């Protein structure tokens, strides 16, 4: 039995396109399909990254993977136990319940018995490229239904919207002051705000207030653009914020902290927003700096760096719209009034419109189309790879046959040479035998002649 093992890289930090590429590559290397996926997890409380990785695997491969997956729980050989912590048990149940404990002393044969039993239960079925593509298409259909449902909800709620309503989504990494900014805008402690390296806001939160007779809604999001989050997770959270602020946000505000170094993840904020909502979304985006007290005697322009810097590039991409808050001076409502004025100016430039569900639906359709094209392209590449592999296989087969032919000819030549040598040796042996016999005959004749001569000698 041929055993083929393929290692799939960790998916959590990969882009959606790279995930598709790696997944299809893995499946193509196991053509016609994968009999068993082995997911290795430690016998310890799972980290956030471990949890995100397992969730992403199930999201990418769908529940169809459950028939073909075995969870391996890695244990210390000195501290073995059959008891599982709640998180690990939850992961195992989510993937269908099959699991096996392993340590340094585990024999491969024991593991193979469990895998072979699973194969018998599946009657030889495998997880193929077609299975994967079917799962992706089902996911697209579910997303389409969700968007249609949101659009229906928007239409039903549209009549209740007031012209002076304002809907704001705050985006930014952990610790930049998004929650404090939301509180400053709303004029009350609506969001939990504290200095922390871990995100206080775990999921999107929606709060509203009446400001100068206007109905203001603010969505506070978890720490986006953090190093441990993948682009896909960021996109999912931003998408979730849209569903909480129907019929759509008037402005996306990217919150930055003047007292912190501008990071690579923050620099890619525009790209992520564009990937999620399309280029038009930048018409509804601006930058807000917190820690205005950090300026002291400087102007905000002096803190933006040289022309062409990453920070300046971000602001230019957002239409050179930016503002500054000092969240310690919550009584200073002029900073809020000025922000609302800048947002109103932006709305006038946009014809008074907002980022609508219709735009979102169009962008989702484009994303789905792109992903579908990526999938089909990967399938085409896989077919090309398989074709090349088959051609290479044929070439190798011909080379091997050619080599075997040469070897057979060489062996035949060697055999012929050996036969000729053996024949020559036999001829030499025969000749030597004849010479020995001739010599014996000569000696015998000489002896006889000698015996005849002796009597004559005596008579004389």
From TrEMBL:
PROSITE patterns: G_AIG1
Keyword GTP-binding attached: yes
UniProt keyword list: GTP-binding, Nucleotide-binding
Biased composition (Basic residues): 446-460
InterPro entries xrefs: G_AIG1, GIMA/IAN/Toc, P-loop_NTPase
Ranges for domain AIG1-type G: 163-364
An example Gene Ontology molecular-function term: GTP binding
Signal peptide coordinates: none
Domain of life: Eukaryota
The keyword GTP-binding is annotated on this UniProt entry: yes
Family assignment from sequence similarity: Belongs to the TRAFAC class TrmE-Era-EngA-EngB-Septin-like GTPase superfamily. AIG1/Toc34/Toc159-like paraseptin GTPase family. IAN subfamily.
Protein name, entry field: AIG1-type G domain-containing protein
């Amino acid at each position: 039995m041929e055993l083929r093992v393929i290692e799939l890289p960790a998916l959590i930090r990969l882009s959606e396109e790279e995930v598709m590429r790696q997944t299809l590559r893995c499946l193509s290397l196991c053509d016609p399909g994968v009999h068993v996926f082995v997911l290795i997890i430690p016998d310890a409380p799972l980290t956030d990254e471990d949890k995100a990785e397992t969730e992403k695997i199930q999201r990418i491969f769908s529940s169809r993977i459950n028939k073909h997956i075995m969870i391996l729980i890695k244990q210390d050989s000195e501290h073995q136990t059959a008891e599982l912590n709640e998180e690990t048990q939850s992961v195992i149940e989510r993937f269908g319940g099959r699991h096996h404990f392993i340590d340094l002393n585990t024999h491969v044969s024991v593991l193979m018995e469990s895998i072979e039993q699973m194969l018998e239960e599946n009657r030889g079925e495998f997880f193929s490229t077609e299975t994967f593509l079917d799962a992706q298409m089902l996911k697209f259909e579910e997303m389409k239904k969700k968007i249609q449902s949101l659009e229906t909800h928007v239409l039903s709620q549209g009549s209740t919207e007031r012209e002076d309503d304002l809907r704001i989504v705050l985006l930014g990494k952990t610790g930049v002051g998004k929650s404090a900014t939301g509180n400053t805008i709303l004029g009350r402690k609506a969001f939990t705000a504290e200095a922390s390296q871990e995100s206080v806001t775990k999921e999107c939160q929606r709060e509203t207030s009446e400001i100068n007779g206007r109905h203001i809604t603010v969505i506070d999001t978890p720490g986006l653009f953090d190093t441990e989050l993948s682009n896909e997770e960021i996109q999912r959270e931003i998408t979730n914020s849209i569903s909480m602020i129907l019929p759509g946000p008037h402005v996306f505000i990217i919150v930055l902290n003047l007292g912190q170094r501008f990071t690579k993840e923050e620099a890619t904020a525009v790209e992520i927003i564009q990937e999620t909502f399309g280029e038009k979304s930048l018409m509804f985006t601006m930058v807000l700096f917190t820690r205005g007290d950090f300026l002291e005697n400087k102007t905000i322009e002096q803190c933006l760096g040289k022309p062409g810097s990453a920070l300046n590039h971000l602001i230019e991409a957002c239409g050179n719209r930016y503002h500054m808050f000092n969240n310690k001076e919550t009584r200073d409502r002029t900073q809020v009034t000025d922000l609302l004025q800048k947002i109103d100016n932006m709305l006038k430039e946009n014809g008074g419109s907002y980022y609508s569900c219709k735009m979102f639906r169009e962008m989702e359709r484009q994303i789905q189309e792109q992903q579908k094209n990526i999938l089909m392209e990967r399938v085409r590449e896989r077919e090309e790879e398989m074709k090349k592999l088959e051609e290479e296989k044929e070439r190798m087969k011909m080379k091997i046959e050619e080599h075997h032919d040469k070897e057979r000819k060489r062996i035949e030549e060697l055999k012929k040479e050996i036969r000729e040598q053996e024949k020559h040796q036999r001829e030499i042996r025969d000749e030597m035998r004849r010479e020995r016999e001739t010599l014996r005959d000569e000696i015998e004749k000489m002896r006889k002649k000698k015996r005849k001569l002796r009597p004559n000698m005596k008579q004389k």
